[in-house]
Amino acid sequence: MMSEGDPPGPPETTDVWPPAPTGGQQMPVPQTLGLAPFIDLTKFTRVVVGLLVVNAILGTISSVLLADDGHYFTSPFVQDFGATIIPCSMLIVLVTVLVFMDWTNQAYSNLQALGISAPSESPRSAAAYFVVPLLNVYKPYVIFVEMWQRSDLDPAIKRSSDTPGVVTLWWLLFLIYSFAFALTFMFARATVQTAIAASAIEIMATMLAVMVVTLLTQRQVTRHRAILALRNASTVENAPKTE
User: Fold this and answer.
1) 190-215, pLDDT tens digit by residue?
2) Among residues 158, 122, 161, which one has the least CA distance to residue 32?
3) For residue 19, how far is the Cα from the chain centroid?
C-alpha cells in the first residue's frame, strides 16, 4: 500500500518493449492509433509460409520433369506422375500468388494502426503491384521496404533508416529466378542442369521470402504491443488522482 507522499509506480504491463524512457520525457502516443484496426497476421503468416514451401517443392519437381521438353524421363510411371503434378503445381502457384497479395494488403493496412498517418500507397495498390507489368519489377520491393521501415520496433519512430538487407536479397533472387525461368522454359529448350540451377535459385528466394514475412509480422506485432503499452501508460498518468 502506498502512503500519500509516495510517487505513483509504473503501470503493470507484461511482454512490453521498449522499456520506459529515461530523462523524464514520455514518448508520444501516435495520434493515428485507432484509426484502423490492427490485424495480427501471425496465423496467416504460417499459411503463407506453408504455401511458399509447397510451391517451391512442386516447382522444382515440375521444372525437372519439363526439362528437354518432357522427354528426359521416359518411364511411363514418371510420365504419368508428371501429368498429375505439373497441373497441381500451376494451381499452387496461382493460389500462392493470390494469398501472398492478400497478406501484403493486410500487412500494409496495418501501418495506420501502427501510427503511420500517411502511407505512400493504398493497401490494395500495394498488393496489386505484383501483377502490374513493368511496375511489378520494382514496386513490390519499394512497398516491402516501406513496410519494414515503418514497422520499426520503437513506437516513437515513424520511419527508420535501416536498410532491410534480407528484403533486398530476397527481391534480387526473385527477379533473377523469374528471368532465368522465362529464358529457360519460354525462349529456349531447358536441360535438366539448367532446370536444377533455376530451381536452386527459387529455393533460396523462397527461404528468404519466408524470413521476410515472418520477421515483418514479428516487427508489426512488437510495435503494436509497444504502442498499446504507451497508450495505457498515458491513460494511467492522465487519470484523475483520488485523495
Assistant:
1) 677 888 888 899 999 999 999 999 99
2) 158
3) 26
